[in-house]
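hiii so um. not sure if this is the right channel but i have a protein structure encoded as tokens and i wanna go backwards to a sequence. like what aa goes where. can anyone help
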């Protein structure tokens, strides 16, 4: 009986430690190239201890000399873990704004902004598998098998 009690305490302690490890600020950066269009996506997550989060998503797109730099999309929501599963639900998304634009028409900019904005609005629930969680690194995999590596943001 004592072993069962110790095992239960250890498992519950690890579960609580995982959530405390997740709490904090994380960032990631991904690069893409498709038909001559270069895309850089930066993600900044802040997981709060009260199971709310904030996200800032910066997107830069360049094709030839034309570019959009740091199209900013902000959102807030709630999160929960169960074992190695992380569920995030985006509840509020702010209208995107761009830091710098060159050589792109207003309608093209609106199309790019709308595309990335609808990513959050049309699919607010994200189910992620936690592949790795340490004090400095978070690796997740989404439903389509895409892996994203986050680093803890240092203050």
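sure thing!! here u go:
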């Amino acid at each position: 009986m004592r072993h069962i009690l110790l095992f239960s305490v250890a498992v519950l302690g690890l579960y609580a430690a995982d959530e405390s490890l997740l709490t904090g600020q994380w960032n990631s950066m991904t690069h893409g190239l498709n038909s001559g269009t270069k895309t850089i996506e930066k993600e900044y997550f802040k997981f709060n201890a009260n199971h709310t989060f904030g996200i800032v998503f910066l997107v830069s797109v360049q094709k030839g000399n034309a570019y959009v730099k740091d199209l900013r999309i902000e959102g807030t929501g709630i999160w929960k873990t169960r074992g190695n599963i992380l569920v995030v639900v985006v509840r509020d998304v702010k209208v995107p704004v761009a830091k710098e634009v060159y050589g792109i028409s207003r309608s093209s900019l609106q199309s790019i902004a709308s595309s990335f904005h609808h990513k959050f609005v049309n699919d607010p629930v994200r189910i992620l598998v936690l592949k790795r969680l340490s004090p400095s690194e978070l690796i997740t995999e989404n439903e389509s098998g895409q892996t994203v590596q986050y680093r803890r943001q240092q203050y």
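oh and Confidence is low (pLDDT under 50) at residues 1-17.
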